[in-house]
Amino acid sequence: MRKTIIILLLAFTINSSAQNLFPVKLDNCKVDVFCLDCGDIQAGYDEAEFSKLLDRLNNKFDFEGVRGTVEFQVIVSKKGRACVLSHTDESNNPITLEIINELNKFKKWTPAITNGVKEDKTSINLIFKIRNNKIKGNIERVDMEAFKQSFDRPVDPEIYNKTYEYKNEHLKDYKITVWNSKNSNLTNNMNDHISIDLNGLIWLTLDEGLVTFDGKEFKNSEQNIVDKGKYFSYHALVTDNNNIKWVYAKDNIFSFDNSKWIKYDSAEIGIDEAYEIINNPMTGEVFFCSDEGLTIYKDGKWTNINKSKYKELPSNRISFAKRDSKNRIWIGTFSGTAMIDENNNLINYETTKTILRGKCITSMDEDENGNIYFTLFEFDRKDKETVNNDEGIAILYADGTFKQFTTENSGMPFNHANCVLYDRNEKVLWISTERAGLIRYDLKEGWENYHNQNSDIPTSYISTMSFDHKGNLYLATRQGLVKIERK
What we know:
By secondary structure, the chain is mainly β.
């Protein structure tokens, strides 16, 4: 999913969606958001008890003549429990597997603390080295500045479709403009969310900050009613029909009406976080997707959709939701996709034989003929280490039939997409990916693929997209802001 979901993203901010630092990814950690080695007091462990852990490893294995190093990413909870999220040993040596077992069983972790409050979940790195016939281990602290700088570089495309020939005949029809920290006053290139308000002002989340862009200058526009603290970042962003900006920042939902910020009490609205915030232009509803279900704001009132109201809902952990032109609500959960129809009946697609079974929708758009386009996330993959999964995009045609497009049957260069937008001016579909750049699909047979090796787009990692009122396409990337306009 996206950042959003955002559990498959390759780059990080200090507060991150559940992402893997190391190449071998484990699936035993039930975690979606964590902070990266954060805290006034950083996460750690009881030294004496950790020494006993090392003694157990040294007593179990004969390390004579053995040399090696393996690193582990460990998620530490505020209750002092932990689990290994990823590691560097692609051979899955029995020693590595036993270290994972010991780290997961270890109960003497100490959580990170910020401003006197325990961080809910923190990612720390441990390094184990075998030298002189013994194994030793310790925490390897993250150099945050070096870490962030390591991602401030172009990501080259990974094209998994080896059969489709990309002619990119329409690339010449577009002017591509890039704003980054080298050619503008943009302070950081890491942009994950974008929203263009009713005045044409562009809003961006920028690493840990929030900025606006009027076409000439970037300005800091962060909320000013709560202390930012040491670790504060913005994870969701949208503009509603009344030109109010909604954001989710650390443990709070905020809105901005262009004059003042409002912070919403979680006890009143039922949530203190959001994976995604979505505006529904046709109904004036704002959707908030969280672990508490789907929270809906309209005309000053808050309501909630969850399993207590619809027992057939696959899960309360909702990553995406949007209403279509037929008044149906499409919901992507971490356990499958559902749809509430115009008569308030819910269909759980895990009980169907459609292509949505086993998938979670992560973004959606609709054309003027009622065809609906989805990006997909395969949430229960058999092979957790596979990158090019059974995902791609799906189209629900107006006649009720589905079709899925992947690298196997189309010009999709890579199967995991972050965002899909229908261009009503050109009658084409735009699809952003995290590994293969931008896709242009003409809804017939023409697939084009633009990235940093064949265009002026500065990277192949594109988080999300938005149209302005003129129909120009803006891309949020890890290498700055990108504008694509027809010549």
